[in-house]
Amino acid sequence: MPRVSKGRKQIYYETRGQGEPLLLLMGWQGNRTWWPDSLLSRLEKHFLLILMDHRGTGLSKDPLGLYTIKSLAKDATLVLDHFGLSSASVLGVSMGGMIAQAMAIHYPERIKKLVITSSSAKVGLIRGLNKKQQHAWLTYLRKRDKGLQEFIMDQLFSRDGDSDDHTTIANFISRTKQQRTPTRTVIKQFMAVQLFDSRKKLKHFHKPTLVVTGDNDMIIGAHHSEALYELIPHAKLHLVKGGTHAMLDAEAEELARVYIEFLLDDQ
After folding, report:
1. Which domain holds residue 118?
2. Would you call 258 helix, strand, or coil by DSSP?
3. Distance between the two ends of the chain, CA-based, in angstroms?
């Protein structure tokens, strides 16, 4: 099996396609199987996709101790080392976008171009939510008329909005069930996310950066991405109309087009 090993670390990865390398970093609880084929099949025509399982997810080992976003970023650099890559373009989604930011802060020389999707420089709890999100959470906490997992699915796909695509949701659930993430990893990732704060450090990153968000994201609202756009020098911002937090499949055509144009642009 293709793994990168160093000490207690064993990071599993897979590759697809050919061309310039593009490292893909999935979000909280996720692994390489969470990436939808509708997106990968478009990207692999232009790039060598490197899909890694974060420590404790998929087929990667879970070393002892807590996680930090910086330690997860270090894991990503080990994968680049394995391929003999001094640098590569990096695309991170949600927590994966935070890991990509940590790479930009601590290992900027390893990044050619940076794509951050549906992410944040600092999440926090209720203070990080917009009014619509706060209302949804407070309503849930008062009524408890559905299970937490069902409520989270509502937020991922903004099911009170116009994006209630049952096929897309079914496909997403199917992917997430392929290799479940242990509860201990979910908790350690959550703690790492809550402690992450890149707001004072991103101003020093000057590589080409694209920030992408959906205007119907009920998990990490678009205002987080707009703040990232303001923090990173010379960054570009793309807003997906109707895009939710879990928009990789439903908006695959638009996302692939935007990613490809940015990454192949000779800047």
Report:
1. 3-264
2. helix
3. 37
pLDDT at 247 over 90: yes
Rounded CA-CA distance 163/242 in Å is 7
User: In three state form, how does the secondary structure of 168-222 look?
Assistant: HHHHHHHHHCCCCCCHHHHHHHHHHHHHCCCCCCHHHCCCCEEEEEECCCCCCCH
CA distance 241 to 145: 30
Distance CA 11, CA 67 (A): 14
The answer to which of 83-92, 104-113, 148-157, 225-234 has the lowest mean pLDDT is 148-157
Better-predicted residue by pLDDT, 150 or 45: 45
Interatomic CA distance for residues 129 and 219, integer angstroms: 8
- As a whole number of angstroms, the distance between CA 43 and CA 157 comes to 23
* DSSP code, position 27: -
pLDDT score recorded for residue 8: 82
Whole-structure pTM over 0.90, yes or no? no
Say how many domains are in the chain: 1
* CATH code, 130: 3.40.50.1820
What are 49's two structure tokens? Answer: 């996709």
